Amino acid sequence: xxxxxxTLLAAAGACTLxxxxxxxxxxxxxxxxKLRFANNLPPSHPLNQRAREMALAVRNDTQGRLEIExxxxxxxxxxxxxxxxxxxxxxxxxxxxxxxxSSQVPAAAITGLGFAFPNYDTVWSAVDGDLGAYIxxxxxxxxxxxxxxNIWDNGFRQITSSARPIQSAADLRxxxxxxxxxxxxxxxxxxxxxxxxxxxxxxxxxxxxxxTVDGQENPLAVIDSAKLYEVQKYCSLTYHMxxxxxxxxNRASWMRLPEDxxxxxxxxxxxxxxxxxxxxxxxxxxxLKVLKEKGMVFNxxxxxxxxxxxxxxxxxxDWKARFxxxxxxxxxxxxxxxx
Length: 339
Ligand code: X2X
Prior knowledge:
By secondary structure, this protein is α/β, with parallel strands linked by helices. It has helices at about 5-15, 45-60, 80-90, 100, 120-125, 130-140, 185-190, 205-210, 220-225, 250-255, 260-295, 305-310, 315-325, 325-335; strands at about 35-40, 65-70, 95, 145, 150-155, 160, 175-180, 195-200, 215-220, 235, 240-250, 295-300.
């Protein structure tokens, strides 16, 4: 390669590294960067509604130079495969529960500890505070992943069933319950004497319809947007776990962007997360009536029998040892004593 050509290429590279002010303007209608954002939720879920708004805002802010293509509903594959695609860079962004991410980043499961958070104030004080920062540092330490500052809200999880309402922990005995693919979910429902079946979300509706599992557990916004009320009769408001979605980025994809695009993108993604949290809070207040009108039967069990059963099974002792004192102390700073 002649000096002239090498010099030209270096200049072009410098041009990109120096930021878009010098970057080649894309041809009208043709983006300089096209990124792929995948998730496992229906298009109607607030996460995808706010993601579409965010993508539009980013395209406008960058004068069309940066486009984000959204793939909802596990279109690019089940969660456990999309993690690999994110790490290889086939997918650039992926929203994922910390409990499923824990196969790669064990510490990320801590926010899903059973009955840890009594309300949203304690959730946000933890995930927007030192515990969230600790988890994001653990994610970044993998070397090929980054997490945006603001976690998106999945919600407090409730148990649905086609067989019976869950009035106490005893009603879970031998119930075949679908759980996401994560040691935390499996261990909690084993501690409750259920029979947890690990399935990616993309398989849940069919498994419930075919009765290969009796029930599943999810926040109301997921139960409604995924139309699980069509295949589940009972919904027991257990609030047994809070769950959130880290907005994850492939690090190489992120670092290829000019610095000014990265700051626009981070600002818009984090703002969308804040708006989505408000959407979920509104749904939490309105979906009970809506789902009753769609035929679901609700009950609100006393959480004490569940907490007592998992404590007796050594659930907190076991997970405190797995997470370690530092992470556990960060969690208890928001929740108070748990083990
Ligand atoms: O898989 C689930 O149940 C879901 C949609 O809530 C998560 O992504 C954790």
